[in-house]
Amino acid sequence: MTSPGRRRAGIDVGGTKCLGVVIDSSGEVLEVDRRPTPRHPDELIEVLAVMTEGFGVVDSVGVGVPGLVTREGVIRASPNLFDVRDLAVAARLSERLARQVFVENDATCAAIAEWKSGVAVGRSDVVVVTLGTGIGGGIVADGRVVRGRNGFAGEIGHVIVDPSGPLCPCGLHGCWERFASGSALAARARELVTGGGGHAIVTAAGAATDIRGEHVESAARDGDAEALAVIDGFCRWVAVGLANLANVLDPELFVIGGGLASTGDTYLPAIRRWFGEMLYAPELRPHPTIELARHRELAGAIGAAHLAEVEADDGH
Known about the structure:
Layout: E1 8-13, E2 17-23, E3 29-36, H1 41-54, E4 60-65, E5 68-69, E6 74-77, E7 85-88, H2 89-97, E8 102-105, H3 106-117, E9 126-131, E10 135-141, E11 144-145, H4 177-180, H5 182-194, H6 199-205, H7 213-221, H8 225-249, E12 253-257, H9 268-278, E13 289-292, H10 299-305, H11 307-313
Parallel strand pairs: 1-4, 4-8, 9-12, 12-13
Antiparallel strand pairs: 1-2, 2-3, 5-6, 6-7, 9-10, 10-11
Helix pairs in contact: 1-2, 3-10, 5-8, 6-7, 7-8, 8-9
């Protein structure tokens, strides 16, 4: 566990921005920094180093990065960092800062944040699902973070739910995130508009070419039947994935994070309803609860700041 007075730094690397925090022993956020994410790997390492140095004296440094991340902190591939392949973030940043740096998948970091200081405190079996441009995941089982043999566990967005479905940026067809992410919600609304419907959604957007998830939400809050149907269909796809995960992992809690968590009350009732219908033998088992994440935008960075603590607890 962290000792009194400690300052831990964590940085969450996203497709467009790097978001860093410093937390104290209780998990309270003391400082926040945001910087654009550079495309070149060398520039990325330098930005991470400069952000860390800007935080002053800290007791540990953790970084959350998207994509396939090995246990040694190497990004093998990342759908949101297009120029990054086989980038040894942990080794290079440790060398640059002359200190140990802990590196983990960003969604796993979000799960750690909720488990250590969010809605999942005190729970032993938790799945955190981040719904944004894509879908990320982090898993806690029997009170331990699940990383898998190579460190690649938690890539739940790329579970294939329809092999003949739309092409995913990962190169495969029919990944769950093509149906249940924020970008999938917007795509379904644009299909509706292309077919001659969705007038309330277009009105909310101001133009048919600029439709996003929040415009669907706005029309739905006004009671528009087409927008409500789009959201219900979207929630059904979210529930498909959650039911599959429940059948495999049997968690006590699902935490919904990512960009959609900020307006999650629009979705949560329908997700829970569809989940209850899709769960195997629902009348014969306790149902996992489904809650919204507490840390929202800062979750990945807060979880990264907790990485040293998690490694110490695991005896590494």
